[in-house]
Amino acid sequence: MNAVTTTAELVAANPTTWNAITCAEVNARLENASAEEIADWAVATFGTKLAVASSMQDTILPHLFGARLAGVDVLFLETGYHFKETLETRERAAKAFPITVVNVMPRQTVEEQDAEFGKDLFARDPNTCCFMRKVDPLARALAGYDAWVTGARRVDAVTRANMPVITWDDNHGLVKINPIALWSDFQVEIYQTAHGLPRNPLVARGYPSIGCEPCTRKVAAGEDPRSGRWAGTDKTECGIHK
Ligand code: SF4
Predict the structure, then answer these.
(1) Using one digit for the tens of pLDDT, what is the confidence trace for 142-184?
(2) Measured in angstroms, how far is the CA atom of residue 216 from the centroid of ligand 1?
(3) CA dihedral in degrees (27, 138, 180, 43; nearest 10)?
């Protein structure tokens, strides 16, 4: 069987109740499928109950899913601390692809957070800042969906080395799909070039992993790409990928 002759077959066999076991079964069948095949399956299975998360470090997922589900919701965590280049990339993606960018907002503006917790909370307590500006807003945003798609890859970090392509996200209570989980940096480059995608210019300027501006620094050649995130602390993840 080829991985996804099978899309129709999989959809026909689509369990009505998703859980860790059903996700593991589908993962076993799709783990080595192409990102395009995984996206086909995801759209056929979940339709508009699917959300795509994008940090706008690149525009691969908005392209991949916009081509299959016009108007697909693309969730962007609007922390209030992004680089202007990232916000510009979001605008370019919204113009280039048939997607609906959903800006996921924290409960408080940066000013309100400053007033309650003091200025620059990220420098004193990044976990609380990430919780309020990323983790909690995402959890509320995902409540209306049956599945979400992320651009997380195994090469991103040792903590992601065994990350499945399809898994049950117990934390949020829905299916989590990582269609480019197995991609190398080279495959990322090939896809972007082949499709002429809008790029976040910061990547070429030495930012291989881009988050909020105060918590992201340039990385020297040969350094761990993630070492520019929360540099100088032991924090390595914002908390949305548990
Ligand atoms: Fe706050 Fe930094 Fe987390 Fe952004 S990455 S939410 S600024 S701690």
Answers:
(1) 998 999 999 999 998 888 899 999 999 999 999 999 999 999 9
(2) 9
(3) 60
Residue 233: inside a domain:
no
Residue 63 lies in a domain: yes
How far apart are the C-alpha atoms of 68 and 179, rounded to whole Å? 14
Report the domain count for the chain. 1
Q: Is residue 214 part of a domain?
A: yes
Ligand 1 atom having least distance to the Cα of 133: 6
Angle between the N-to-C axes of helices 20-30 and 35-46, in degrees from 0 to 180, rounded to the nearest 10? 140
Q: Which residues contact 97 (CB under 8 A, 6 or more apart)?
A: 59, 62, 63, 66, 67
Cα-to-centroid distance, 21 and ligand 1 (Å): 34
The pLDDT > 70 percentage for the chain reads 92
pLDDT given for residue 1 in this prediction: 41
Q: Is 240 in the pocket of ligand 1 (CB under 6 A)?
A: no
Which residue's alpha carbon is at the smallest distance from atom 6 of ligand 1? 130
Task: Give the CATH number for residue 202.
Answer: 3.40.50.620
Q: What's the pLDDT at 219?
A: 86
Distance 17 CA to ligand 1 centre (A): 35
> Which residues constitute the domain of residue 156?
7-228
Is 37 part of a structural domain of the chain?
A: yes
- Which ligand 1 atom is at minimum distance from the Cα of 229? 5
